[in-house]
Write a structure and sequence with these properties.
The strands form two sheets. An eight-stranded mixed β-sheet has the order 6-7-8-3-9-10-12-11, sandwiched between helices. Strands 2-1-4-5 form a four-stranded antiparallel β-sheet. Helix 3 crosses helix 4 and helix 4 crosses helix 5. It has a domain of 213 residues: Rossmann fold, CATH 3.40.50.300. By secondary structure, the protein is an alpha/beta fold. The structure holds adenosine-5'-triphosphate and magnesium ion (MG). The site of adenosine-5'-triphosphate has 16 residues, from strand 1, strand 2 and helix 1. This is Peptide/nickel transport system ATP-binding protein. Pfam families: ABC_tran, oligo_HPY.
Length: 334
């Protein structure tokens, strides 16, 4: 049984003049120990998808189809109260705006040990010891536990939130660009340490990131999202070494590199589709270098591969497209 099983999940937002389909028929599974990288351009639906998983959609957002099954339980049918009980202990969330989620009136240390004492009945001194270890893990001095949030810099707050999210050994951590406030070197260090910790108890993570090189270094699986849909999904080695979808092939140019000297973002030309309009054919067609007439018709069928899938109207010609895309050999050695 998978730890998390998303079954054909669709999510819509109500707009004043219609609706917007932010997540379209998404399926994927996460097993114990998996680290899934969720990548895609701004606005493709990453945050919406994870808010849908954890039942935190804003009032105009709604799961319109499908199920979120976590540990054999359907999460999107749970009450807000039942869902709250699962937070921190079973699923913990680090959001893009996590930095604002520390309570300004309490010392940071108190905020970290409290859930341990409450949920796990951990004695206070033991909880404090664990908080110190977690601070060490994220690169903060343990003396800082006695400070208030306003005494922290933005990057320090972000580290404290990461420490907090790890405090109860959650089965699943969902991290929405958890390290954007930190520089790239620190980013990869912290991710590596989170990974080591998760390894110790077979914990899993969904890591939302813009950066494909972070995925290559950190993740076991990857889901590539484009215009509300996961257009390619599978094992990291498989997808990055042998991408099947032209968008995934193009990512090598669209994402900044962790190594090497070039950090700016070179994007694939064009803009993603308007999600408030019905999409006919492939949603990447407008920007795809390999587009043909058949790409703009009907619904694109899913092609299954080992441990994954992709959506491309020219799936059968994939090897030829890959040759034309000129994937650099450095990808093979990742
Ligand atoms: N509360 C909302 N009401 C209406 N539309 C929304 C709402 N939140 C997000 N959207 C729209 O849903 C789509 C997906 O947004 P989402 O925030 O999930 O993208 P994202 O991939 O997380 O982007 P980013 O990388 O910038 O964080 C976008 O078109 C966005 O404008
Ligand atoms: Mg987001």
């Amino acid at each position: 049984m998978a730890l998390l099983d998303l079954k054909n999940l669709s999510i819509e937002y109500k707009l004043s003049d219609g609706k917007l389909k932010a997540v379209d028929d998404v399926s994927l599974t996460i097993d114990n120990g998996d680290i899934l990288g969720l990548v895609g351009e701004s606005g493709c639906g990453k945050s919406t998808l994870i808010k849908g998983i954890i039942n935190l959609l804003p009032s105009n957002g709604k799961v319109t189809e499908g199920e979120v099954v976590f540990n054999d339980e359907v999460l999107n049918k749970l009450s807000v109260e039942d869902m709250r009980k699962k937070r921190w202990k079973e699923i913990s969330l680090i959001t893009q705006s996590a930095m604002n989620s520390l309570n300004p009136v309490y010392k940071v240390g108190k905020q970290i040990i409290e859930p341990m004492i409450e949920h796990d009945k951990t004695p206070k001194d033991e909880a404090m010891k664990k908080a110190e270890q977690l601070f060490e893990l994220v690169g903060l001095e343990k003396g800082r536990l006695q400070d208030y949030p306003h005494q922290y810099s933005g990057g320090m707050k972000q580290r404290a939130i990461i420490a907090m999210s790890l405090a109860l050994d959650p089965k699943l951590i969902i991290a929405d660009e958890p390290t954007t406030a930190l520089d790239v070197i620190v980013q990869s260090q912290i991710l590596e340490r989170i990974n080591m910790l998760l390894n110790q108890y077979d914990g899993s993570m969904i890591l939302v990131t813009h950066d494909i090189s972070v995925v290559a270094q950190t993740c076991t699986k990857v889901a590539v999202m484009y215009g509300g849909k996961i257009i390619e999904y599978g094992d990291v080695n498989q997808v990055l070494k042998r991408p099947n979808h032209p968008y995934t092939m193009g990512l090598k140019n669209a994402f900044p590199s962790l190594v090497g000297d070039k950090k700016e973002l070179i994007s694939i030309e064009g803009t993603p589709p308007d999600l408030s309009k019905e999409i006919i054919g492939c949603r990447f067609a407008e920007r795809c270098p390999f587009v043909q007439g058949k790409c703009r018709k009907g619904e694109i069928k899913k092609t299954s591969v080992k441990n994954g899938y992709f959506y491309c109207a020219r799936a059968e010609e994939r090897d030829e497209l890959m040759k034309q895309a000129d994937i650099p050999s450095t990808w093979e050695s990742n």
